[in-house]
Amino acid sequence: MNDALDVTLRLLIVFVVFLTFPLIIGQTEHKVMAHMQGRLGPMYAGGFHGWAQLVADGVKFAQKEDVVPAGADRRIFQLAPAVALLPYLLVLLAIPIGPGEGAVGEVIDAGIFFVLAVMGVGVLGSLMAGWASANKFSLLGGLRTAAQLLAYELPMLLTAASVAMAAGTVSLPGIVDAFEWWWLPWQIVGAIVFFVAGLAELQRPPFDMPVADSEIIFGAYTEYTGLRFALFLLAEYAGIVVLCGLTTVLFLGGWHGPWGAEGLGWVWTLLKTAVLAFIVIWLRVTYPRLREDQLQKLSWTLLVPLSLAQIALTGVVKVVIQ
Amino acid sequence: MTLAAAAATAHATTTSAAEAHGFLSPTGVEIAFLLVGLVTFGAALVTVTTRQLVHAALWLVVTLGGLAIEYLLLTAEFIAWVQVLIYVGSVVVLLLFGLMLTKAPIGRSPDADSGNRWAALTVAVAAAATLIWVVVDAFRTTWIDLDGPAAGSTKATGESLFQNWVLPFEGLSVLLLAALVGAIVLSRQAKATATEPGAPSEREPR
Q: What compartments host this protein (chain B) (predicted)?
């Protein structure tokens, strides 16, 4: 296959994944939440168990008027949803789902750094939205977003560094290649810290203080309507895909599984990602929202020390087994 | 640190390629480098001249992102991503946090000029001249061989950093540690003076 066609095909596949997986997770969330609360959830749109509900939602969003508040900073207000969404598309490019060069959008030498760096950029979108809306709820939401990001970026980086130390490489396919089953107990603390910190970075419940709809009316997104609001929502669900995919690749061994023939590794990756996504939804239904001081306390007094301990443990074990 | 690493790797891999290049027949990569450089420079100028505070911070994102692309074009992939991670992901977020806390207004701030314009310009020009002189003197006509093994890969950068440049690296670590301790001491002092004169003890917010 020639190069141009190969690149186009890869980009196309990643783009399709980017467009469909967040919707699948969104629909799963509708149904799982409903059943956990003793409801049925959407049942009419599309006929079979309301599978087309999100498509209908999308059409509804597209029909709404795109309003920019009079006092807002127009250009930044309009740019913010793109800044929030695009980084996740870029990150998806670097996540491998199977062994070999064929199963990843683009092999990146310093993959871990690329992924974490670009994910950090996405939060700028919320900050821009919060400031540019000229609304005090939005500003509060923006402030909380920034405070939360500053607190949770550190444990995320530290635990990712722990895996990189264990594998001896910072490339994502390289890390999964080096994975052994006993890494699971070895890195379990790091895995939990990474997942929790990632949830906080995505502002998912119970870490949804920045968008708390019942107190600050969706925070930074208060003034958004129509498609731009939908883009922010899409960014949240794309973020879930990325976080679950990353946790799978870094801590759960990606395409390795207890059994399964050659060439079916990608099924394992998708399965693990799906289970993690289910947990994300489950947590949303189960836990009440954390208060701002509880958020900060959890990060600085629990997650950061735990991730430092994980790095120490990784270092000690690494030296001992060599 | 980045310069040193790039210099070490550049000398190792790229000395022989100098004859094959001229300034009059630029390759695509060189043209891209130049264009991105111009955009970065322009964004940097807007950052320091705009009167809208938050816009200045956002233009800084463009500047730092442009720098990261330049690193990428110089094959220093690791350094490029770390640049984005640290500066765009953390430093600018901290800046924006500070600006939001002070409730930076939407629109122009007429008083956003400190009156140090000429002093700042002098310092900036002097710093730029020094850096350009150092870089030109260090590299002369070395070219990065794009077809060979990646000269700025994580492995190459790490090896040169921890074999040839350990001392500056550790020196920087100590400097950062000192800054960290200093920040803690300063914040604790401020807290002690604030709560000293018979202030009610802090309660748990509920």
A: Cell membrane
